């Protein structure tokens, strides 16, 4: 199985399982799990923030940030394909009582004017209060694109001037850091809070970190408890997180190089179009002409190559540590071989109904 569905599919390797097996643990809700404390301290330092908190998932990390920064009735502003808006089960609205106002920006890098158009008049009591801007970096649905540091800072300055806070959904912040050559701390410096997944390309089985000021984390800890995210002898997971944090970033450049190479090969397949300039990190978006994306997903899966169809004409491939260079080459050959084959030769099962399949993020 060659699995390009997501970088979440990475499995803990032998060293990580060993670290988990031998982790010193305590009760983290009581504040005495030393491995969790070590992870939180180390993450805060890496991100240049006062404190950090270990949370079960990126989704919970983002929701916690919303609940700390915004009050019920407030409005959040973000790009329309952000994870927080599209793929978190409406959690911000469901648990935070907020509304979300979105703008489209295909590149994933918002313009200041995009945000400006979404802001409410703070003096008009008829309107909700705009209180939080969420910036996704890298932007997943824009194809893993890095938001340039100058723009991050410009957006932060702008929203801070207007009395909003900025939360960075840095699920793949380390990919942004490696691709741009900027430190994670520099990228996160202007954000009031940041969320970062340990469980994607960094390779941990579970977990995300959030970081911010000491006051932010104090309140975040309370909100995490309320959401049921207080975990006990969770040093077994923090031990995996520590390895992910220390060693995961060192090999992301390899994922990025493989993504560029796979993207170039895919671009050669008739009916596949790839914007090679947009392959900043480990994600490739492929636009299809004359193919049905779900039929292609099904045909490739039968040949052992897995990826997601995200619209009827768009595929997403994600590179990660559990796809080797040899597998990338094997996948290229398998996909090239599919070209020109009709539904029968593609091996799409009889009665296959593309509409019955879900679109995936
Ligand atoms: C994966 C992801 C998340 C959420 O992570 P989970 O751990 O799956 O809840 C948040 N934001 C972005 C951009 C992501 O890609």
Plain-language structure description:
The structure is a single chain. The chain is an alpha/beta fold. The protein has 2 domains: 12-247, 3-Layer(aba) Sandwich (Aspartate Aminotransferase, domain 2); 251-339, Aspartate Aminotransferase, domain 1 (Alpha-Beta Complex), CATH 3.90.1150.10. The protein has helices at residues 14-21, 34-47, 58-69, 83-86, 91-96, 112-118, 149-161, 173-180, 184-188, 214-226, 235-247, 252-267, 293-302, 325-338, 343-346; strands at 2-3, 51-55, 74-79, 99-103, 129-136, 165-169, 193-197, 208-212, 272-273, 283-288, 305-306, 308-311, 314-318. Strands 2-8-7-6-5-3-4 form a 7-stranded mixed β-sheet, with helices on both faces. The chain has a 4-stranded antiparallel β-sheet with strand order 9-10-13-12. Strands 1-11 form a two-stranded parallel sheet. A hairpin with a 2-residue loop joins strand 12 (308-311) and strand 13. The structure holds pyridoxal-5'-phosphate (PLP). Residues 57-59, 62, 83, 136, 140, 169, 171, 197, 199, 208 line the site of pyridoxal-5'-phosphate. Pyridoxal-5'-phosphate (PLP) binds at residues 57-59, 62, 83, 136, 140, 169, 171, 197, 199, 208.
In total, how many domains does the architecture comprise? 2
Number of strands: 13
Radius of gyration: 21 Å
What characteristic shape results from the CA principal axes?
Answer: globular
State the helix count. Answer: 15
Largest sheet: 7 strands, mixed
Q: Could you say which structural class the secondary elements and strand pairing correspond to?
A: alpha/beta
Low-confidence stretches: none
The name of the CATH topology of the largest domain is Aspartate Aminotransferase, domain 2
% residues in beta strands:
15-25%
Q: Order of strands in the sheet with the most strands?
A: 2-8-7-6-5-3-4
Q: At the fourth CATH level, what is the homologous superfamily of the largest domain?
A: Type I PLP-dependent aspartate aminotransferase-like (Major domain)
CATH architecture identity of the largest domain: 3-Layer(aba) Sandwich
Distance between the termini: 20 Å
Mean pLDDT across residues: 94
The residue fraction in helices comes out at 40-55%
Helix and strand string, N-terminal first? EHHEHEHHEHEHEHHEEHHHEEHEEEHH
CATH class of the largest domain: Alpha Beta
- Give the ligands present: pyridoxal-5'-phosphate
């Amino acid at each position: 199985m060659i699995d390009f569905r997501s970088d979440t599919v990475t499995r803990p390797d032998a060293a990580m399982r060993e670290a988990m097996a031998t982790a010193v643990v305590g009760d983290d809700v009581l504040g005495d799990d030393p491995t969790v404390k070590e992870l939180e301290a180390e993450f805060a330092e890496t991100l240049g923030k006062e404190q950090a908190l270990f949370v079960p998932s990126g989704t919970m990390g983002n929701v916690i940030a919303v609940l700390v920064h915004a009050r019920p009735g407030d409005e959040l502003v973000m790009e329309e394909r952000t994870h927080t808006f599209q793929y978190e089960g409406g959690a911000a609205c469901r648990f935070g009582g907020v509304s979300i106002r979105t703008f489209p920006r295909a590149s994933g890098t918002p313009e200041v004017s995009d945000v400006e158009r979404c802001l409410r008049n703070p003096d008009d009591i008829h309107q909700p209060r705009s209180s939080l801007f969420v910036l996704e970096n890298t932007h997943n649905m824009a194809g893993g694109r890095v938001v340039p540091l100058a723009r991050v800072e410009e957006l932060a300055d702008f929203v801070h001037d207007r009395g909003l806070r900025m939360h960075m959904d840095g699920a793949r912040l380390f990919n942004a850091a490696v691709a741009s050559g900027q430190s994670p701390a520099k990228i996160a410096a202007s954000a009031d809070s940041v969320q970062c997944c340990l469980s994607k390309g960094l390779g941990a089985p579970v977990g995300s970190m959030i970081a911010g000021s000491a006051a932010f984390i104090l309140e975040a800890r309370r909100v995490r408890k309320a959401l049921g995210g207080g975990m006990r002898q969770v040093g077994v997971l923090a031990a995996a997180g520590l390895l992910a944090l220390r060693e995961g970033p060192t090999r992301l450049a390899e994922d990025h190089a493989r993504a560029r190479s796979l993207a170039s090969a895919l671009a050669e397949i008739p009916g596949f179009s790839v914007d090679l300039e947009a392959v900043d990190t480990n994600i490739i978006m492929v636009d299809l002409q004359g193919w049905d994306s779900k039929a292609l997903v099904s045909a490739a899966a039968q040949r052992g190559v897995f990826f997601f169809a995200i619209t009827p004409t768009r595929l997403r491939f994600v590179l990660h540590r559990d796809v080797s260079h040899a597998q990338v080459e094997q996948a290229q050959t398998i996909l090239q071989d599919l070209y020109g084959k009709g539904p029968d030769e593609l091996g799409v099962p009889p009665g296959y109904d593309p509409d019955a399949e879900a679109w995936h993020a």
